[in-house]
Structure formats: structure tokens, C-alpha cells
Amino acid sequence: MSVLIFIDTADGHVKKASLEAMSYGAKVAEQLGTVAEGVVLGTVTNDLAALGKYGVKKIHHVAKDTLNHLDAQVYTKVIAEVARATSATVIVFSNNVDGKAIAPRLSARLKSGLVSGAVALPDTGKGFVVKKNVFSGKAFANVSVTTDVKIIALNPNAYPIITGDGAAEVVAFNAAVEPGKIKVTQVTKASGEVPLTEAEIVVSAGRGLKGPENWGMVEDLAKTLHAALACSRPVADAHWRPHNEHVGQTGIAIAPNLYIAIGISGAIQHLAGVNRSKVIVVINKDPEAPFFKAADYGIVGDAFEVVPKFTAAVKKLKGVA
Amino acid sequence: MKILVCISKTPDTTAKIAFTDNNTKFDTSGVQWIINPYDEWYALVRAIELKEANASAVIHLVTVAGADADPIIRKALALGGDEAIRVNAGSQDSFYIASQIAEVAKTGGYDLVFTGKETIDYNGSSIGGMVAELLDLPYVSLATKFEINGSTCTINREIEGGEETCEAALPLVVSCQKGMAEQRIPNMKGIMGARTKPLKVVEPVAVDALTSVAGFELPPAKAGVKLVDPENMEELVRLLHEEAKAI
Ligand SMILES: Cc1cc2nc3c(=O)[nH]c(=O)nc-3n(C[C@H](O)[C@H](O)[C@H](O)COP(=O)(O)OP(=O)(O)OC[C@H]3O[C@@H](n4cnc5c(N)ncnc54)[C@H](O)[C@@H]3O)c2cc1C
Ligand SMILES: Nc1ncnc2c1ncn2[C@@H]1O[C@H](COP(=O)(O)O)[C@@H](O)[C@H]1O
Asked: Exposure pattern of A239-266 as b/e (b: 16+ CB <10 Å)?
């Protein structure tokens, strides 16, 4: 018996979402009186043994470079093999882009129930019930998994990273890796910036900014806070900002520690993508803007005056003049 | 080329979310139902564009739902698509739905299966992957762009903090999101035509669900907004630092 965690990497580095998944999986293992083990696919630059501090005791590494790019079909077969070899009863993924591709396939392959978008530890008191996000952050469902093996895809930023001591035993796992049918030809990354879905702080702006030429002050604030940038849908539709910054019901759903909304009215479809943020700051010149109802801190004022002052105050706090 | 587009029915994006029967059922009173936006705007519209570029293409729609989904599927037919198949089953879990879709896909022999990125009510983001596994086909999730040249598809998909371009051959399962296509409004001709397009109803195959919803919860209400003087951003920074511990 074990809890198996899929440790996701990008360019050989373990993703932050996987540190959360390991911390979560280690806790589930403790609940069930078993051990947490990890599986890593492809070549990595991280010291895998050091991941023991997130609670995993053993890491199965399939170090084939054909696994350096995600092919969900290929990954699923390998992970299923590792799950069988480790007699995993719970398999944990992050519900990030890779988790969304692999976990459902694994669920169908193993005929094991999946809870995707989990936000809390399972309730193992009676059965196995996991709380998940539904209705785009407007509610939760408690999902009961009835199969012997359970698969959980944990929402990013829903569970803290918990560090302790200890090193993991790293073992090479020799899996049959078939050639993939998906060939990655190009990777385009917004360079030097914080990926939106992994960001602790997100600075977002809407139509209230009037035009793309006014984003300089938003970028300054984001840079000062080491934050990722986001925007409302009309802003992306008008090509003021790239589409991958569009958050909301039809864009990306995020759950940072801090979400700062500037000149965004707070339409229900926008809130659907950001209402899982822990703290929300709203800057809007209209005191009646619906966003204030969802905010923790509100500033009724003109963004063009408020934002530069805000940035200056953050710089002061951080001691960078 | 035969394309299967998976269509689901979801509450309107502004619907009030409430529960009945001791928080075990979604309260549907007064709720307007729509085609799940990802299925409509991205999966279906991209399929229609592919057919516009290749007259021999055929588009079938599939939904796993009761007869109450018929207006939704007719609306999807009004946008485009040649015929629809409704698997006459109440919604159980994702695996159950995926198994029904996979069965339809197997019998129909499709080259391409499009799903939306996720349903805006269950937020599973699961059914595409499950269908792909059940059919043992490659799966490209969260696609933002899809082009086809002969039998080679060039697809952009989301990765953390960027995009990846990849190539794959048909047959293939793809989950679609923003970027794939632009929203369209059905025109009169489409609406009239949809009335006579075939809507086949088939009975579900026997499959056991793997999960069930024990109950729902609403998030705790926010404490209320704390207003900060726009002239005093030091105070905002202090609150964020000391009280919220967010910076
Ligand atoms: C099915 C559906 C799905 C949708 N999905 C999404 C989605 O995913 N994401 C999304 O964002 N939207 C989505 N929308 C659109 C949504 O309904 C709103 O139209 C949109 O969010 C509004 O964007 P906005 O707040 O930037 O603009 P507006 O609503 O125009 O608001 C601009 C705000 O800026 C304020 N403002 C103006 N000037 C200043 C100033 N100088 N200083 C400070 N404040 C100022 C105004 O008071 C106003 O509140 C969707 C709509 C539908 C129907
Ligand atoms: N009942 C259903 N019938 C047909 N397709 C569905 C159904 N439910 C979900 N889908 C498809 O699967 C996608 C992902 O759904 P989900 O996994 O529930 O988030 C949706 O965008 C639809 O394309």
C-alpha cells in the first residue's frame, strides 16, 4: 500500500504545484497509515533525494528523455505501471495543465475514481470523500470515491507546502516507454515572467485603463510585487493584452494569495475565475462597482493616481526606493 | 473527415448557485440553461470552420443527457453541425459520461473528437482525457489553436506560463479553450435548418460510475470590504503586509 504522487517537471525543474501535491500526499499517507512515494518522468536537474523534505519516502524515476515532453497517452501507461508496482491506493496529481491531461486518462485506464480540482484533504472517517471546487469557484462538492484505488487532482494553491527533514530514496524505475504520437515542435514562454497559474500575487487590469498604452504602471506594480499579470476578457478581446492573461469563467481560473484588480467592474463571469484568491484588493473609481462586494480591501479612486502611489508604497516597504 | 463535438448543458454564467434537498441537489428553479461556453464558442465553432474549409467534412454532436437538453442541442445544431446524438441518460459521474461518449465515438468511427476545456458547473476538465483513454487515442488538452493539413494536425496547447506547438496525426481527441475560434451567433437560416436536422436518441450502455456527489457547500461569506483612503497607500501596504500577510 502507498500514496503515489506524480511529481511534475518543466525543463527539468520540479514545479511548485508538485511541492504542494507532495505535501498533500504525505498528509494523506499519514491519514491512511502508509507511506508517500513519488514518480518522476524524464530527465531532471533537481536533486530528487532532497524532495524527501516534502514527505515522500521514495522516488521512482523513469529517466528516459523521450518523456521530456508531455504525451498524456504515454505518461499514463508509465504511471499506471508504477502505481501497480507500488500498490498505490491513492494517486495524487496537481490539477495543473499536465494533471488535467493525465489524471483523467489514468482514471479511465485503472477504472479508479477521480476527484479533479480537490481543495482539501480527504475525509476518511466514513468512506473516502474529497471536497472539490464546482460552479467555477461559487460552490464546493463533496465527492465520494467508491473504487479501491482513488485519484486526486489537487488544485494549485489549495494546500500549503509543508517542509520537514529527510531525504527520499531515489530508485530508477524501468518502464516500457512506447514512442509518443504527439511531437512537440515549439515551446513559447512568456520570458522572465511569473506564470499566471503559479503566481502568489496577480495584478490584473480591465477596461477602466482605457487603452493598452496605459499598462506601464500596471507592469511596474507587478514587477515591484514580483507578480504575474492578468486582465479581464474585453481587454484581451480588444487585443490590449495577450489572450493568455485573460482570467475568468472563459479564461484562466487562478487562486493566488493576493489578487489586485484595477479598473475591473467585477462581473460574475470575471469573479468565477478569481474568487478562489485568498485576498482581493479592488481599485475602482466607482464605489458601486460590484467587485467591492467580493473584495477584502477596496480603494475608491482613480487608478491613474492610485496605482503609482501604491507602487511607491510597496517599494518603500521593500526598501527599494 | 468525421468530427464529433461533445456538447453539455450548463447553467447560464449568471445563474444563482443554490442547493436543495439538504444540500444534495442543485436548485434549478429560475435557472436558464446554455450550451457550456467552451463547447459552443471553441469546440463547435472550430469544427464548423474546419467544415467550411473542407466541404466533405461531417460534424456530429453528442450529448449525454435527458430530453431536457434537446433545446440546447437544437441550438448547437443551429450554429452548425449535421446531426446530433443524445445518449438518453441522467448525468452520473465523469467516467460514466465519458464511457457513453466513447461508445458513440467507436460506433461512428470519427477522425476527431472535440470537447470543451471544462464544464462550468462540474469543472472536471476530465471527460476529454477519459474518452481518449477509452479509445486509446492521443489527447491534446487545453488547445488554443488547431490547424489541419491532410491528416497532420498542428495544435497549440497551454503550458504553465506559455504555449506549446505540437503535431499529431488523426484520429485524435482535443479539448478546446479560448483562442480556438471566436464566438458566433446562430442566424435565421441556421435556426430554421436545425429543426429538420436529425437528433438521434440512443440508450446508454451499462457502466458503473466511479464517484458520486455526497453533497454541496457554499463558500463562507466574505467579511466585507475594508475601504482604504486613496491618498494613503502606505496604509494599504501596511494592511497587506501585517494583517493579510499577503506581501
Ligand atoms: C458567457 C460569458 C463569459 C464571460 N467570461 C468572462 C471572463 O472569463 N472574464 C472576464 O473578465 N469577463 C468575462 N465576461 C465578460 C463580463 O461579463 C464583463 O463584461 C467583463 O468582465 C467586464 O470587463 P471590465 O471589468 O474590464 O470592464 P467594464 O465592465 O467596462 O468595467 C470597467 C471598470 O473600470 C472602472 N474604471 C473606469 N475608469 C477608471 C479609473 N480611471 N480608475 C479606476 N477605475 C476605473 C469602472 O468604474 C468599471 O467598474 C463574460 C461574459 C459572458 C456573457
Ligand atoms: N453530459 C455530457 N455530454 C456530452 N459531453 C459532455 C458532457 N459533460 C461534459 N462533456 C464534454 O466534456 C468537456 C469537459 O467536461 P468536464 O470534464 O465535466 O469538465 C465539456 O466541455 C464537454 O465538451
From this structure: ebbebbbbbbbbbbbbbbbbbbbbbbbb
